[in-house]
Amino acid sequence: MDESTKQLLQRLVRRIPAQMLRATLDKWGRLTAEQRTCMDFTQPKWTLTEKLLDIFEENGWTMKHLTELEMTYIIDNPNQGMWYALQLMDPEDDAHTVELTQLKEQFKSHLSELVRPVSVKIKKHTDEAIWIRIAWGDNFSRPNHLKPTYVVHHLQTPYVFVMSLTSKQKPLLYQALVLSTRYQAIKDANLSGRKLTAIRDVLMRQYQQVFATRYSSPLAEINLPDSNPNIEREEAEIAANRLQMACEAFGDGTLPQLQTAVYKLETKFRDNTNKTMTEHEAPFRCLVKFASTNLLESFRHCACSGIASTPVTPLLSSILLKGRNHFVITDNGPGLASQTQQSQN
């Protein structure tokens, strides 16, 4: 076993929680029954690491086998970093016919032509998602398996999700994706989050849809005793109206767990008493970022409880309607972020 393989194995074992290590190794499926019996998972991780190193040496396993183990863990536990959504554009006539075998061959071939050396491993998950692990190299070094890029793509859809991609690697990956999926272009979808399933559900509309007419008559369902004072009835009506408008904006089901929403303001300075600033050509810019463990649920709760005013502003409800959480607000109105900063290093 070379030093890079040993280093990656040590890092991977440290990364996997102790209570998940046994299940991950079992799902990997490389250990024999005897080798699994020899693994005492009550021991410290450094002891388990040494045991795995010995097993790797005995079996002559290489980096290929280790990357299989890493992919097994990452696929089952995808929330290990920040995911960014991309959208393929302008499909060619045969885009809908691309299959897994064809995608594998084409992607590896195109990426290898663009950068050498590069290590690519592709695996199909049970939910039909295609997982791609890329270890990048350059003319002077071997592929760096300690900093791989992960790509997830569902065949027959225009959506791609990427984790850990540098600005230098971005055009290489984009070109390989476009060519292998039979599309003509790819763009930033202006949607990101730490939960892969959440941003996937937003883009693919895999959540309870928002229908404003669903709560068209909320007060009819409220049965208030005739003896209630008028003030209680008025408060109940206000609360029901807030609930109605919150559900019109976000729906009443389980919401995708997005963590952030970013709004960039670009506006001209307007003050007749300050001509110097008013005539300044460059716009003023500021950035507003909302953050929460479940941002959409927080917005809905704020609207229902009266913390946020209703009806809900389109700037918030557009997160679901447009499937984005990065926006630019200009003097002409809210628009999409043209170039979202993706600090994926």
What does this molecule look like?
By secondary structure, the chain is of the alpha+beta class. It has 3 domains: 3-76, no CATH class; 83-203, 4-Layer Sandwich (S-adenosylmethionine decarboxylase); 212-253 and 260-336, no CATH class. It has helices at 3-15, 18-28, 33-38, 45-59, 63-76, 100-114, 170-181, 196-203, 230-250, 275-278, 295-305, 314-322; strands spanning 83-91, 118-124, 129-136, 149-154, 159-163, 183-193, 260-267, 284-291, 326-330, 333-336. It has a 6-stranded antiparallel sheet, sandwiched between helices. A 4-stranded mixed sheet has the order 8-7-9-10, with no helix packed on it. Helix 1 (3-15) crosses helix 4 (45-59), helix 6 (100-114) runs antiparallel to helix 7 and helix 9 packs antiparallel against helix 11. The longest helix has 21 residues, at 230-250. The radius of gyration is 26 Å and the shape is globular. Belongs to the CENP-N/CHL4 family. Keywords: Centromere, Chromosome, Nucleus.
Brief summary of the model shown:
Pfam families: CENP-N (PF05238). With 345 residues, the protein is of the alpha+beta class.
Keywords:
345 residues; alpha+beta; S-adenosylmethionine decarboxylase; four-stranded mixed β-sheet; 12 helices; 40% helix; 21% strand; globular; disordered C terminus; CENP-NAC/CAD_complex; Chl4/mis15/CENP-N; centromere; nucleus
Number of helices: 12
Task: Kindly report the CATH topology of the largest domain.
Answer: S-adenosylmethionine decarboxylase
Rounded to the nearest angstrom, the distance between the terminal CA atoms is 28 Å
Q: How are helices and strands ordered from N to C?
A: HHHHHEHEEEEHEHHEHEHHEE
- Counted up, domains total 3
Give the spatial strand order of the biggest sheet.
2-3-4-5-1-6
What's the shape? globular
The helicity comes to 40-55%
Second CATH tier, the architecture of the largest domain: 4-Layer Sandwich
Largest sheet: 6 strands, antiparallel
Detail the poorly predicted runs. 211-222, 336-345
SSE class: alpha+beta
In percent terms, what proportion of residues is strand? 15-25%
Q: How many beta strands in the DSSP annotation? A: 10
CATH class of the largest domain: Alpha Beta
Determine Rg (CA atoms, Å).
Answer: 26 Å
Mean pLDDT: 86
